[in-house]
Amino acid sequence: MHNGEVSYWWQARGGFPARRSSLPGPLEADVCIVGGGYTGLWTAYYLAGLRPGMRIVVLEAAFAGYGASGRNGGWVTSELPGSRAIYAKAAGGTAGVRALEAALRETVDEVGRVSAAESIDCDFVKGGRLSVATTQSQLARLRAGLAAAREWGDGNDVLEFLTGDETRARVNVANALGGLFAPASARIQPASLAAGIAAAAERRGVEIYEATPVSAITPAGAGGGLGGVGGVSGPGGLGGLGAVARTKFGDVRARSVLRCTEGYTSALPGQRRTLLPMSSHMIVTEPLPAEVWAEIGWGSCETLGDEAHAYMYAQRTADDRIALGGRGVPYRFGSAVDHLGETDQATVDSLTGVLRRMFPAAGDAAIAHAWCGVLGVPRDWCATVTYNAASGTGWAGGYTGVGVAASNLAGRTLADLVAGEPSPLTALPWVGHRSRTWEPEPARWAGVHGLYALYRLADRLESAGAPEGTVAVEGGKGGAAPSTRVRLGEALGHVGDAISGIPH
Ligand SMILES: Cc1cc2nc3c(=O)[nH]c(=O)nc-3n(C[C@H](O)[C@H](O)[C@H](O)COP(=O)(O)OP(=O)(O)OC[C@H]3O[C@@H](n4cnc5c(N)ncnc54)[C@H](O)[C@@H]3O)c2cc1C
User: Fold this and answer.
1) CA nearest neighbour of 255 among 387, 431, 416, 434
2) Which residues 6+ apart lie within 8 Å of 421 measured at CB?
3) Is the pLDDT at 413 greater than 90, yes or no?
4) N or C end: fewer C-beta atoms under 10 angstroms in the chain?
């Protein structure tokens, strides 16, 4: 089994991409984007489309798509990165939340559209998202989620309840009691998308410098100004204004410097407690034979998840493997990040157990590769897109685990903000959103590890209480009365949600 090597997705493309050159030395630009993941690359791509004359540079510590963007589960999902209730506190109220949700659904198609238009071969298949319940407690959560969605106005076209039989007819998950199906979701090969956006941005004139870590970002007016140096395109050059991105190769001075560093943000000065780098881990099987697929189904390539507290996510890959992810070691002390995606054996074993439980037909499948990556989690689990024209700085991120579509929408929004083009996107409620900071260590480490220990216990209790063969009354509320263990599991799950603030 391969372990790390950034991700299976990169290795499936033949290994790491050819390295672009590092920053050649100090330079001036209109816009400097720090971080070459989806957020930075989409922002550069759309901004270059809006303002073709602008000099836009992307500074990337490793290579474009090195971070979560080249390692994720490949769900282009319209799920909201955060809580409706929190976003509803913004000026747009509930209408703003509905606009954000609609924009995220449209974004799934936008990713497909650009992939086609730019000839990005990223295995995009819009097969919808299927969330499966395999215990009575999960089924109850699934129903609660559906009821909340209905209260917010979502009809069957957005979210549809499936009985156990209907669920298994799509994907034959063992013990599936029911499911929720959302059409607005697509499956992709994540690294191919990252590589494709980078190339498309370059075709629009964007300069990408790799192996160029930024050590600090200094806003305009904080001693990093340009001292009257002009010469950059745009009205009046930089005219003494400008933010600075500092690197060992020299400074990049630009009217706008955008931080698109997501799970790696805490390494930048002043950002230690802004976003918590949460680890997510994945395994992928060897290609499965036709007889196994005949048993499992999954013909529409739905992105697949469950309703466990420590949930799993999966996809059927274009080369007929199952790629499955979930939480392992959730967080490293002091916001440390993994080395090239290497994953511990206990996490691999636990994810393999989930795979075998859900897909007995794949019980013999060998695990070909395991890896992990970090996603950025804000303290209130709600994402932000923000830009301050006076300081020339902005950032987007904090998508928690659902950033593939969200980063496209954020990139388009950041491009509009930097271009000074008010648009429906710049009025969405995550624009200018502020989350409080995370607790200092060791409270942060203890809190996250305690939370996931609680969630795992809650999942165990809930499953232990579901005797083999207990079947929900499909479409109704029935099923066996929950045992004390199940109730305890559910209660612990609620406690975890209350402590963490994780939205449902
Ligand atoms: C294992 C895993 C599975 C996931 N599955 C899904 C999924 O299926 N669907 C979904 O919607 N979301 C998923 N996510 C989340 C999603 O991948 C991210 O939200 C998204 O990729 C974020 O993109 P980004 O560009 O903001 O961050 P990243 O892709 O992490 O990019 C940040 C980049 O910034 C660079 N960088 C950091 N610091 C600096 C610096 N100081 N100087 C220069 N460069 C720097 C990094 O090297 C990195 O390339 C998953 C995440 C992980 C880790």
Assistant:
1) 387
2) 50
3) yes
4) C
Ligand 1 proximity of 325 Cβ (cutoff 6 Å) = yes
For the entire predicted model, the pTM comes to 0.93
The verdict on the CB of residue 57 being under 6 Å from ligand 1 is no
- Answer yes or no: is the C-beta of 493 below 6 A from any ligand 1 atom: no
What is the rounded distance in angstroms from the CA atom of residue 272 to the CA atom of residue 256?
22
Please give the DSSP secondary-structure letter assigned to residue 154: -
Burial class of residue 363 (count of CB atoms within 10 Å of its CB; 0-12, 13-18, 19+):
exposed
CA distances 334 to 178, 266, 281, 371, Å, are 40, 9, 19, 21
- Whether 380 is in the pocket of ligand 1, judged by its Cβ within 6 Å, is no
* Structure tokens belonging to residue 436: 């409080």
State the pLDDT at residue 235. Answer: 38
Please indicate whether residue 476 or residue 378 has the higher confidence score (pLDDT).
378
User: What are the contacts of 226-235 at 24+ separation with CB within 8 A?
Assistant: 226/28, 226/253, 229/28, 229/253, 231/28, 232/28, 232/29, 232/30, 232/55, 233/30, 233/53, 233/54, 233/55, 234/30, 234/53, 234/54
- 58: which 2 tokens? 């992307």
Work out the pLDDT band at 471, boundaries 50, 70, 90. Answer: very low
| The token pair that represents 104 in the structure block | 């995220």
pLDDT at 337: 86
